[in-house]
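quick one: IPE bound model?
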Amino acid sequence: MTEGSIDSRNLPEGEERVWLERARAGSVPRHIGFIMDGNGRWAQRRGLPRTEGHRAGVESLRALIPALIDLGVPYATFYAFSTENWKRPSEEVHFLFDLLVQYAKEDRRELTERGVKLRAIGQVDELPGAVRAAIRELETQTSSGTNLTVNVALNYGGRQEILRAAKDIAKSFAAGQIDLDKLSEAEFAARLYTAGQPDPDLIIRTSGEMRLSNFLLWQGAYSELYFTEVLWPDFRPVHLYKAVVDYAGRRRRFGGVTA
Ligand code: IPE
Ligand code: IPE
Ligand code: MG
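yep, here:
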């Protein structure tokens, strides 16, 4: 793939705009999921500690928010920390949490001004107090945003999410509140973190890995998948626009036949 060699920061502004216009002209996803991968490799290739890759990755996230709004994408989910990421060295885990607290403080104003509604999805209650507090505050402050809903998947795992919904249903059943024979997919989905949101039309994973790593397993049943060699800290709006142009050229059948 050639995209990896493009450093969009050096692109003439006009070229980025051309891709934005092309993306806008086609079918724009209502919800895009981002598996932000490759921070560690980005840093290692520069002889830096992995943590510097995470720091650089925050800039990619920052740059994408206005791009998603420009494009008219109403929902985005960013995979920031999986239920499996606890396996990493504790210094790295804590660096990630500190980065998140810093982001929540530094970007609160900009997010509010841009009309972003930010929510954390995942087992947030298991996170350190400072992280929970920063997240809750950011959620409260941005709760009236209407331009873009951003889900930050934090201590998130698709299996955990499905299991949690199943347990919730079991409790309602035990309390005599639901008829299992009538339970629908929609009612099940209403117990997921993404209740009320459209399923992701497109899931983008950076760094060349081609797997879901436990991301939006239920919601992604019919998502279009887009993999790029670009490492997350190098991912810029132009890469998003290219992914959306690619998406618009696909034929989604949902098990049916193409007209
Ligand atoms: C993604 O980058 C960030 C998180 C999982 C938090 P990685 O840290 O997984 O980077 P690589 O895959 O090791 O390069
Ligand atoms: C997936 O990336 C999780 C996040 C991006 C937060 P990983 O780097 O943890 O995934 P694997 O281990 O390569 O599958
Ligand atoms: Mg990785």
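The domain at 27-157+199-248 is CATH 3.40.1180.10 (Undecaprenyl pyrophosphate synthetase).
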